[in-house]
């Protein structure tokens, strides 16, 4: 599926966007028949309210969308996407007194609202689409790249583990590299041990679908950016097995990998002047006779020893080896993304992307990018006084301290132990929308990628 704006040269119908505050003035400016129709149908400018305006022959010539008041708009992201389902198919353009930011949000909302995941519904006829004509002054290429990257992320997260194991994730990884002329390699199975990725191997060795480390490189000039994404294609919890309900969403445990691939798509699609490196440890955390056990002690790629006190805290293990590998060559910024902890969801819920960094410039740039990319984030602390919590005594590190507090923070501190050199930022995302929302249907969703895209000019000096 390719998100598209309407052809700028094609005819389009107006979608009048009317706030509750501006309703009276709007009605007074309308022809008497239109004013009478809107008044008779009780249109009051409530957020998401829609009225189609018919001509004398019954054909729809325009539409009026309620934009609510400031409080209502603050409570609903991508509010104008609410009306897309009620519009007749065809081309539309925005009319009304919207700011540039409101126009950009509406344009992105219409692109994101067009997403459909129909891989498992073959034969269902494609519905005619509603397409928005891009308002003047907005960057069509950037908005389209954002939506394309998001669609890739959603498709990957939404695909069941039966059809998206480590080998399938590798195929998607290589396909993205091929599309943009990047190079991609994979270290698979026992070669992980031979090439010193012991924790990736330990997590994934129990599955018949071999673990692997995927690497992509693109670009030859400019600052160096490395993205690392957790690619646990399904997480049973290992021998510390999850309950059935806790396993239901575990096809999304590769959401970090899906999100960095979506972000990589945006970067390459826009041709940003940088050198991109993407690392994805792709595994399935399964159960068999050779699965890792609680209280096993692993020696990581970096040489730090790790006591495995919970085999369900596997994401930080595979990321640790990948982060250590990332730091073996210089880069200007290193970013990891993972569906890492339930503690992050308890802290901020499903809609916000928590992130960690000690770099104030990165943090400020990301907050700005979050606003321009309509991609909310929330800063969490690398709280160094909690460092002793992840030190079990018998080994250098504990992958799952039984402390009961600050689980997202202690996981982030664990990862930070494997980073030396580059400026670093870590995201503990959810990657899932629990119920249908405007421009975000229930299911997989990207978090943090658009915010990062907006932050890169400052972070990397582009």
Automatic annotation (TrEMBL):
It comes from the Bacteria. GO terms for biological process: proteolysis. CDD domains: Peptidase_M17. Residues 152-452 form the Cytosol aminopeptidase domain. One of its GO terms (molecular function) is metalloaminopeptidase activity. Residues 14-133 form the M17 aminopeptidase N-terminal domain. GO terms for cellular component: cytoplasm. It holds the Pfam family Peptidase_M17. Transmembrane segments: none annotated. Keywords: Aminopeptidase, Hydrolase, Manganese, Protease. PANTHER family: LEUCINE AMINOPEPTIDASE-RELATED, PEPTIDASE B. Belongs to the peptidase M17 family. This is Leucyl aminopeptidase family protein. It comes from Fuscibacter oryzae.
């Amino acid at each position: 599926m390719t998100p598209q704006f309407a052809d700028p040269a094609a005819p389009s119908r107006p979608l009048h966007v009317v706030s509750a505050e501006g309703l009276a003035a709007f009605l007074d400016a309308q022809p008497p028949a239109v004013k009478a129709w809107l008044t008779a149908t009780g249109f009051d400018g409530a957020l998401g309210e829609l009225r189609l305006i018919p001509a004398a022959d019954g054909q729809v010539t325009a539409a009026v969308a309620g934009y609510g008041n400031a409080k209502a708009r603050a409570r609903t992201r991508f509010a104008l996407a609410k009306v897309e389902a009620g519009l007749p198919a065809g081309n539309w353009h925005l009319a009304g007194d919207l700011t540039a930011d409101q126009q950009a949000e509406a344009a992105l909302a219409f692109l994101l609202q067009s997403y459909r995941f129909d891989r498992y519904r073959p034969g269902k006829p494609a519905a005619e689409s509603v397409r928005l004509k891009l308002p003047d002054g907005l960057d069509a290429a950037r908005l389209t790249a954002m939506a394309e990257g998001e669609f890739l992320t959603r498709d990957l997260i939404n695909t069941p583990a039966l059809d998206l194991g480590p080998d399938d994730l590798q195929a998607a990884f290589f396909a993205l590299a091929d599309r943009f002329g990047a190079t991609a390699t994979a270290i698979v199975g026992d070669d992980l041990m031979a090439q010193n990725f012991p924790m990736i191997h330990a997590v994934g060795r129990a599955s018949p679908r071999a673990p692997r480390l995927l690497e992509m490189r693109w670009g030859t000039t400019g600052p160096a950016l490395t993205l690392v994404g957790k690619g646990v294609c399904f997480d049973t919890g290992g021998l510390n097995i999850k309950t059935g309900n806790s396993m239901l969403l575990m096809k999304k445990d590769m959401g970090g990998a899906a999100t960095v691939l979506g972000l990589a798509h945006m970067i390459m699609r826009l041709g940003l002047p940088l050198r991109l490196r993407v690392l994805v440890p792709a595994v399935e955390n399964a159960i068999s006779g050779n699965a890792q056990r609680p209280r096993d002690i692993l020696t990581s790629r970096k040489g730090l020893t790790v006591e495995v006190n919970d085999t369900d805290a596997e994401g930080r293990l595979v990321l640790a080896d990948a982060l250590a590998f990332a730091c073996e060559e210089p880069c200007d910024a290193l970013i990891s993304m993972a569906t890492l902890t339930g503690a992050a969801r308890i802290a901020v819920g499903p809609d916000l992307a928590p992130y960690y960094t000690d770099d104030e410039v990165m943090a400020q740039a990301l907050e700005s990018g979050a606003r321009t990319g309509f991609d909310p984030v929330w800063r969490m602390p690398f709280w160094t006084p909690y460092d002793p919590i992840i030190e079990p005594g018998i080994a250098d590190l504990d992958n799952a301290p039984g402390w009961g507090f600050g689980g997202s923070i202690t996981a982030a501190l664990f990862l930070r132990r494997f980073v030396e050199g580059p400026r670093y930022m870590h995201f503990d995302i959810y990657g899932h929308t629990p119920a249908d929302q405007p421009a975000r249907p229930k299911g997989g969703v990207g978090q943090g990628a658009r915010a990062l895209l907006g932050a890169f000019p400052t972070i990397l000096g582009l």
